[in-house]
Amino acid sequence: MPSPVRHLGMAVLVATAVGCSGLKPYPNELPTKNITIRTATNAGSMFASVRVELDVHGVDASCRTQYLGTVPLDQPSGAVGIAPERGSVLTFHFLSSNFLGSSRGRISREVFIAPRPDQRFEIDVTYRDDLYDVVLRERLRNGTLRDVALQDAKACR
Amino acid sequence: MMNSQRLVAILAATAGAALIQGCGGMPQTAEEFRQAVPGAMLTKTDTYEVNRPLRDVAAAFQRKAPECLNMAVRTVSQTTTSYQNILTEYKATVVPGGERAELHLQQLHKGGVIYPSKPPEGGAYIIVADAYPMPGNRTRMQLYGPSIGYDVVYRAIRGWASGDNLGCPDMTKIGK
Description:
The structure holds 2 protein chains of 2 kinds.
Chain A: E1 12-14, E2 35-42, E3 48-59, E4 65-72, E5 77-80, E6 88-98, E7 104-113, E8 120-128, E9 131-139, E10 145-148
Parallel strand pairs in A: 2-8
Antiparallel strand pairs in A: 2-5, 3-4, 3-6, 6-7, 8-9, 9-10
Chain B: H1 4-19, H2 30-36, E1 43-50, H3 54-69, E2 71-78, E3 83-95, E4 101-109, E5 124-134, E6 138-146, H4 151-162, E7 168-169
Helix pairs in contact in B: 3-4
């Protein structure tokens, strides 16, 4: 079993100082938006809030990652184009804060994906009552959805 | 100045390490933890049934526990008079079996916390959840752990066991 330390990259939580300054917007310029993302959040209290951000990293042939930019997932649905035929690491950050920001938290889920040109994926991102989830499905040609197991960046190797 | 919320967070964070150990030393195994919880401060046991067979519950534990619980949490708190920076590592272990499936959660603070005695390899046991087969493809859950601060983890385990919610607990909410 992998040690917890090896998961540091997958999910490191920082309780303070998670401001979004300095984030580069993901250009999202590819003509084909091959990933549809649905986002639903509920902090569970009127005194708390949660928002979700997506960091997109390109992965080269040596499995090195390069940060390409961040997409704020502040709408119920959106579409993102990632490069086909090569790997990408999508990191979903759930950023929570309570009343007046006296307590902040950040928890992340990393997803490695290497779509073929003809593949389309749908991702459901949820945060409800302090439980978060990322569900990846492939939209098949016949219109049905197929669950896809999440893999982190180690899947590149 | 320590506020009440911070105090609760610290109590919760150290429950497995200090409170459960009582007078007999820190539990070094999951079984020792089961024995220690009923008589320890700020701990509880909980029992409920889910409408799924044991093999499905065990499979959910095997899939979700490493994915959701094996992680490190850094907590930084700062006031005008103090600064704390604590890295806490969590380690989940699932022991499947036909008679019982077990999920153990261990917690190890990497600084900022002084353990009164040596914690076991992987950290102090903080939660143990046992699943037992019941007639009619049902499963009985028996949980041992802190009575405060870990509600988010208990809810996640319940969701995995029942299959109703496969989400991961936001571990930054521990102690809040």
